[in-house]
């Protein structure tokens, strides 16, 4: 029994020692950790030289980068208030009638002179035929009048020939009368009164015949003048008929509606069989020549000049950069040409930066430059031009 009690006490002592060691070990670890923390804690970060070195380097990089960025950006002027523009050609009918042919060319490219539509030719063709018939009739009238001129001239020559004998007789009778009168003055007995009376009557009779012959010649000359005027009148009728022919030909020419310029056909609003009248719009053509109208702020025009290179970005094709140059700068802001320009002389005035239209043409300075005609670019599409002004 005594031995068993001693063994139990020894076991309890060993357990107490083990518990004491276990309690002492965490305390030693805490002390060791506290010592490590005291060793790791040093001066603050902003007091370390490496912090200031990194900060100075970053500041220098930002300043240099910002300066270079500003120096590069000041070389360019850009705006998003820009659009593709062109002189759209609107095709309209010039005569009235029904369309007998309309080409199926919607949104397709056509060359100048391509037949777009045809109007029925019936009435216009009849007018042309009538004008041609009147011209033939006037030509026949000219020939007839010219024949009358020839006939009147022949009659005039005949009258002149017939007038020569009465004139000669009148001259002879007048000479005889003068001779008898001269003899009577020299010797009254040399010439009888009967002879003088007979000579006087003969002179009057021959003078009357000569006057009648002169009137016949004048009448023949008048007939020639009338015939010549008839020729001129017939020629005027022919000219009028030819003018009607030309007018009818123009009208017939307007029956075939052709493309005046090369470009893409858009906005077709007629079909086969549609009835049109003068001024009716049939379709429109966007020409091949297009440009960019960019509305720059007036403060951006300080260094802008004609001929400066431009990089054009079309919103529809953001990955393609087109080349161009400044073609012209409008003299005046856009609001100056408005239907009702602003009146700054009345009321309170607030200064607003105005925008000035600048025309920019597309270029292909290099073979590898993108061709704007190879892309579906048309009026009204948004672009962003960037002009190199320095």
What does this structure look like?
The chain is an alpha+beta fold and 390 residues long. It has 3 domains: 76-87 and 288-388, Beta Barrel (Elongation Factor Tu (Ef-tu), domain 3), CATH 2.40.30.170; 89-122 and 256-284, RNA polymerase II/Efflux pump adaptor protein, barrel-sandwich hybrid domain (OB fold (Dihydrolipoamide Acetyltransferase, E2P), Beta Barrel), CATH 2.40.50.100; 123-249, Orthogonal Bundle (Helix Hairpins), CATH 1.10.287. Helices cover 49% and strands 21% of the residues. The protein has helices at 2-40, 49-73, 122-186, 193-253; strands spanning 76-78, 82-85, 89-92, 97-102, 109-110, 115-119, 256-258, 263-266, 275-276, 281-287, 291-297, 309-314, 317-329, 355-363, 382-388. The chain has a 6-stranded antiparallel barrel with strand order 2-11-14-13-12-15. A hairpin with a 2-residue loop joins strand 12 and strand 13. The radius of gyration is 58 Å and the shape is elongated.
Looking at the structure, what is the overall shape? elongated
Give me the secondary-structure category: alpha+beta
What's the CATH class of the largest domain, please?
Mainly Alpha
Largest sheet: 6 strands, antiparallel, barrel
Radius of gyration: 58 Å
Q: How are the SSEs ordered, and which strands pair?
A:
Layout: H1 2-40, H2 49-73, E1 76-78, E2 82-85, E3 89-92, E4 97-102, E5 109-110, E6 115-119, H3 122-186, H4 193-253, E7 256-258, E8 263-266, E9 275-276, E10 281-287, E11 291-297, E12 309-314, E13 317-329, E14 355-363, E15 382-388
Antiparallel strand pairs: 1-15, 2-11, 2-15, 3-10, 4-6, 4-9, 5-8, 6-7, 8-10, 11-14, 12-13, 12-15, 13-14
């Amino acid at each position: 029994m005594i031995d068993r009690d001693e063994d139990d006490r020894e076991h309890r002592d060993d357990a107490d020692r083990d518990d004491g060691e276990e309690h002492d070990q965490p305390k030693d670890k805490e002390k060791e950790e506290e010592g490590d923390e005291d060793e790791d804690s040093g001066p603050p970060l902003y007091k370390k030289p490496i912090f200031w070195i990194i900060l100075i380097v970053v500041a220098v990089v930002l300043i240099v980068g910002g300066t270079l960025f500003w120096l590069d950006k000041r070389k360019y002027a850009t705006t998003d208030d820009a659009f593709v523009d062109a002189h759209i050609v609107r095709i309209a009918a010039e005569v009235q009638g029904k369309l007998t042919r309309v080409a199926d060319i919607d949104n397709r490219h056509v060359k100048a002179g391509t037949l777009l539509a045809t109007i029925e030719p019936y009435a216009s063709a009849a007018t042309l035929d009538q004008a041609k018939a009147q011209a033939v009739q006037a030509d026949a009238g000219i020939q007839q009048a010219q024949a009358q001129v020839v006939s009147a001239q022949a009659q005039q020559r005949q009258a002149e020939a017939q007038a020569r004998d009465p004139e000669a007789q009148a001259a002879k009778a007048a000479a005889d009368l003068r001779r008898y009168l001269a003899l009577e003055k020299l010797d009254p007995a040399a010439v009888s009164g009967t002879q003088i009376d007979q000579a006087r009557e003969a002179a009057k009779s021959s003078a009357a015949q000569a006057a009648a012959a002169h009137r016949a010649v004048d009448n023949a000359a008048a007939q020639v003048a009338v015939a010549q005027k008839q020729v001129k009148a017939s020629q005027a009728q022919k000219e009028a008929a030819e003018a009607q022919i030309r007018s009818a030909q123009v009208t017939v020419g307007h029956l075939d509606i052709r493309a005046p310029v090369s470009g893409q056909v858009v906005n077709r609003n007629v079909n086969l069989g549609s009835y049109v009248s003068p001024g009716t719009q049939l379709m429109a053509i966007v020409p091949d020549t297009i440009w960019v109208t960019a509305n720059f702020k007036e403060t951006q025009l300080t260094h802008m000049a004609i001929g400066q290179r431009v990089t054009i970005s079309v919103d529809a094709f953001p990955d393609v950069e087109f080349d161009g140059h400044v073609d012209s700068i409008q003299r005046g802001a856009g609001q100056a040409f408005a239907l009702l320009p602003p009146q700054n002389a009345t009321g309170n005035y607030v200064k607003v930066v105005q925008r000035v239209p600048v025309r920019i043409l597309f270029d292909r300075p290099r073979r590898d430059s993108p061709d704007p005609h190879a892309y579906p670019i048309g009026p009204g599409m948004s672009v962003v031009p960037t002009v190199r002004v320095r």
